[in-house]
Specification:
The chain has 241 residues and is of the alpha/beta class. 40% of the residues lie in helices and 13% in strands.
């Protein structure tokens, strides 16, 4: 098969919701039922952070946590169940702050949940839910697919478990060491629009996020933005059918 035909076949496979042969990055076509921005024209923005953990044990980035908690800035952490288990004391303390939400990011952070069967998808969500509730005392209400990789089947399964799914309009790319603090600040201040959900990493893989975050927060506030907590805002919205 020619390279042109192969590329077309791969695009067709993604567009009709079939999982590709190997794990992929976030699909360009977003399935229905995923929140990528808040339904508002107000100058609000939601800070969100992924706390991923597959096999290797990860830890909270204390530079990020201490800054946000010290400034009492609302933020949401989408956390893998394994991460919650292995950092239980720190996560429990973090969850006590009323401006912090701990939400579901699957149990083991499989790179592409489209490649899992229905039972495994449910198990990833339910096992993480149980662990997060055990550690924090609260069941999560929001879910984020690892890598943003989802299709209509997996979205339907997760929504059937009572979750709203929250992704993002554009990715910061902070797990790449080449995305330095100056670039994070510049691109965030240039791209952010009312209702955006910003995505960073708080598991030690956002290489320059702690360094960039104070300037990002100050810059957005100077533009008239205020920060909101995702579950609070979404609870006031009517979810799509």
């Amino acid at each position: 098969m020619s390279a042109l035909r192969l590329g077309a076949a791969m695009l067709l496979s993604i567009s009709i919701g079939r999982p590709p042969a190997a794990a992929a990055t976030a699909p360009e076509i977003v399935p229905p039922g995923i929140v990528t921005r808040l339904a508002t024209r107000e100058r609000v923005v939601a800070l969100s952070f992924d706390a991923c953990q597959a096999v290797e044990r990860m830890h909270l980035d204390q530079g990020i946590v201490e800054f946000l908690v010290g400034r009492r800035i609302p933020f949401t952490v989408f956390m893998a169940g394994r991460f919650a288990r292995d950092n239980a004391a720190e996560v429990r303390a973090l969850a006590q702050h009323p401006f912090v939400a701990i939400e579901n990011h699957s149990w083991s952070h499989p790179q592409d949940m489209r490649l899992l069967d229905d039972a495994r998808v449910r198990a990833e969500v339910e096992r993480a839910d149980a662990m997060i509730a055990h550690v924090t005392g609260h069941h999560p209400t929001l879910f984020r697919f690892p890598g943003g990789n989802a299709d209509e089947r997996t979205v339907a399964i997760v929504r059937g478990l009572g979750y709203r799914i929250v992704h993002w309009r554009w990715a910061e790319g902070d797990p790449a060491p080449s995305v330095d603090a100056d670039r994070l600040v510049a691109q965030t201040l240039a791209r952010t629009r009312p209702g955006d959900v910003l995505i960073f990493h708080v598991n030690g893989r956002g290489w320059h996020t702690a360094e960039a975050l104070p300037r990002i927060v100050d810059g957005l506030e100077a533009k008239g933005f205020r920060f909101v907590l995702l579950p609070q805002v979404l609870a006031a919205e009517v979810p799509p059918r």
